Amino acid sequence: MASRTKPKAVSREALGLKRAEFERLLIYAQSQAEAAGGVDALPEVLATAVTVAAAQQTIDRGGGLLCFFEIGFDEHDPYRLIADAYRRIGATEAAEAFERAVKLFPFEQPHLHRERRLAWLEEVQSSDEHHEIWDLSDELIESPEVWSKLKAYVEANRDAFTPAGRPPDGDH
N or C: less crowded end of the chain, CB within 10 Å? Predict the structure, then answer.
């Protein structure tokens, strides 16, 4: 399903992030999730960073919320976990926009009903170009709030992103 939403031209560099270092720390967190068998096995700091980065990258690169909601998740309540992770980094507006988008589904627990979810997304995409989900998607794509808050969160918890007994790269 292609999205009509176009990413905004906001780069991580424009936000003043040290991209290589930030991405290295996120890659470390993601590798820890893979080694542990998923984000549930990680300490909350790493799980939060991995969850936000994965969700936001999917929204940014995948074409917005409609494409994001096409994905199936194994977690018990993945949408709540994602909104909670946005809140933990301080991206409250993004968490609220994400939760509003989830509440737009005309049935409870959309993550559990893949076929119904996909049918509703297809209906919205083909027949309702003024649906609220488009505005919420635009709000979240390449959100400067999310990326700057995630960077600050990672920096504030930098020790959690470093293997025990090893100084972070560039600090030796």
Answer: C
- Give me 64's structure tokens: 């917005």
Q: What is the pLDDT of residues 98-132, one digit of tens each?
A: 999 999 999 988 988 889 999 999 998 888 677 88
Contact 51, 78 (CB under 8 A): no
Whether the CB-CB separation of 28 and 169 falls below 8 Å is answered with no
Residue 169's CB is within 10 A of a number of other CB atoms, namely 12
Sequence-separated (6 or more) residues with CB below 8 Å from residue 104:
131, 132, 133, 136
- Its pTM stands at 0.81
